[in-house]
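Teaching note: in complex prediction, the entire set of molecules is handled at once rather than each chain in isolation. The prompt given to students was simply: 'Predict the structure of this complex.' The entities are:
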Amino acid sequence: MAAQCAELAARDAELLERRGTTIGPYSPLFYRTPRHFVHGEGVWLTDAFGRTYLDAYNNVPQVGHANPRVAAAVAEQIATHNVHTRYLHEGVVNYAEELLATFSPELDRVYFTNSGSESNDLALRIARHVSGNSGILTTDFSYHGNTLTLAAMTTGLDVSEPFGEHVRRFTIPDLDHAGGRGEPEVLAEALAQVAEAIASLQEAGHGLSAVLVDPSFSTEGLPRLPQGYLEGLAALVHDAGGLVIADEVQSGLGRLGWAWWGHQVTGLVPDLVTMGKPLGNGFPLGGVVTSQAVMDSFSSTNMYFNTFAGTPVASAAGRAVLAEVHERGLVQRAADLGERVRARLAEIEAEHPLVASAKGRGLFFGLELVDADGAPNPELAKAIVERLANEGILISRIGPHDSVLKIRPPLVITAEQLDVVVDTLSRALHEAAPLPVGAGA
Amino acid sequence: MAAQCAELAARDAELLERRGTTIGPYSPLFYRTPRHFVHGEGVWLTDAFGRTYLDAYNNVPQVGHANPRVAAAVAEQIATHNVHTRYLHEGVVNYAEELLATFSPELDRVYFTNSGSESNDLALRIARHVSGNSGILTTDFSYHGNTLTLAAMTTGLDVSEPFGEHVRRFTIPDLDHAGGRGEPEVLAEALAQVAEAIASLQEAGHGLSAVLVDPSFSTEGLPRLPQGYLEGLAALVHDAGGLVIADEVQSGLGRLGWAWWGHQVTGLVPDLVTMGKPLGNGFPLGGVVTSQAVMDSFSSTNMYFNTFAGTPVASAAGRAVLAEVHERGLVQRAADLGERVRARLAEIEAEHPLVASAKGRGLFFGLELVDADGAPNPELAKAIVERLANEGILISRIGPHDSVLKIRPPLVITAEQLDVVVDTLSRALHEAAPLPVGAGA
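The expected output is the structure of the full assembly:
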């Protein structure tokens, strides 16, 4: 047994070496000891050693790893017919209709793409055309994709591309970090910062083409917004002639519970909605949803075509995902299970001095960790993430200081499985950073 | 029968209408009467009426429509395990190694992407970083993808994005359009134009980051280059501190015969190679191949990650495609069949006054059509394309004037099938534009 394990470990080491000399040593791998998964099913991932992990992190397999319905739909269509959309195909139109049915009626047109990056890049391109302006607003800790245009507005990870002269950043307010200020004051300050950024773009001659935001601000650490912030942000952008782009790559397709899309849950009213990660449950598929007027403006003067996007096979994958979310009631489930977990996380927050706040909604949670002085505690977050991985549970961390635990399971997770995640997390927190004697329950 | 046909035609009309109100009326469709394909196999496509077409146009299904080996590989992997590359996976590394084995030894690193657009955008981003410059050279009738960065350098189709201040265009020389000048003169003039474009970028303070070219210049109309042009172009770019990017989206994976990649056939020596269309035979898959030094420079300072790219399923598709090309000897077949077709096209050129030149190599051909005065003849090209579609053969047209017939079948086409294409084409040309009495064979 031990010899077998050693052999498997040696094989992983060799694989890591081969990976380093082909796709390179920079391509990031999760965890101190990289995991080598060979099998997936629902929320479960099995590694090469035969060990099974409960996945409470991955949001691409929204309807479960290796979902059989998605797999069967792709298998059938790819063996039958797959070509670009310059010919008619019923499956493609069916998918477009079924996807658009999850949006409010004024958002009634869709461009298909192959990824969230392509979606955000296209939305910015459309906004430049429609507004006639070039300026962009982005938040001060965000990531919206890997194209050159998106790299020039990336604030949440390292890029060498210079920050664009046509880009201004602003800070998303968080009532959990209000520093004693009241909600109206936080709101006013945050909107004043947006207005200032817009004025700066106008003075520099760029004008405003768009603000690009994730409606739940997940990379930013799932902040708790003051009432009226999103409405105020959208109004300032529209007053300046810009468009509001909701990046639903992380917050979409039922992730936040209650509604299909994050903007519907949080109250942001967008002109363009971009989609990626969960749309094809791992089949490369993204899209941009907008109004007929915006499509008419852009596409009547731009020959936009995307070879792989919205093919019969991509559409088969997308339709199977929509059917799973519908028929298994995953949107409402995310809401119900989310409430249950939030209550548990609130208990942990109340009882554990190093937990500053429980954040998020639906099946997207954050648990903000601090040290004894209340400062961000990325070391503890890292220790907890590694500890849980060693116990067979996958989570991660986010936020400007990497100090917010990120819990974001496939939507097919059950209440019992979520209890295991929270129980293990609670135990890990207590053991990694013991409560003072006499404290807690 | 007639009633059934009418019903099917009415259904297609309804589908077209539904398409127009979802993905929009602008999304281009081929042919005067759009085709509605429901089944594919090898070079054959079958439409909703049950009519079968010989596909001599599509280059995405390089190893044949609905290739069974690719379909089986995707079906097996998607039912087993599919997740991003932040975990180890043997299939991904195997694919990277097998793909890199088709390149010269100094091109030994690969970034996976989801499309040709993502590949070209990433290559430009890398070139900006490595060169420290921002200027770009592009040809005067080209298309390299749909991102905002690529739109700002698009010269071959309509975009509203203003042509970039950091971009200069130059003309690819064509000995078939030398206007009486000799080859050395054509070469000198063409290279002088490149040198001038570089000087202009330098004077404007942009410097040169890259030239981005398709090694066979397919969108430009498959020009016949003067000897030494590609070497001269690369030397000028390198002297200015720029990188050479070979866009293999159209010319790669055996398309040109003789070698795996277009640059290996034409003699262009690139620093970066970008791939798309045929790589996954319709599964969204692209990549950028480069040297270890370039990857080290870019990735050590840029956190580049791409969620869908190079997943276990994408790699399974890519490996199946490589295996098909290898085992069926498609690279050499493209060369052999290409020679045969070129000889036939040369005969057509010799005998038909409205055929100005036969162009291309491997399984990528152009037939340049002119009118009685020798001017480009897009009307005739369109008539021939439509005529062939009505006879059950799919081809298209390209070039700055849309006057070059484009023939670019899946590589699995047979000699007999190619004969049918050329025979039908020859007949169509004679019937559409009869030879003068006494002319021809």
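Point out the following to students. Residues 330-351 of chain B form the longest helix (22 residues). Chain B touches chain A through 101 residues (CB under 8 Å).
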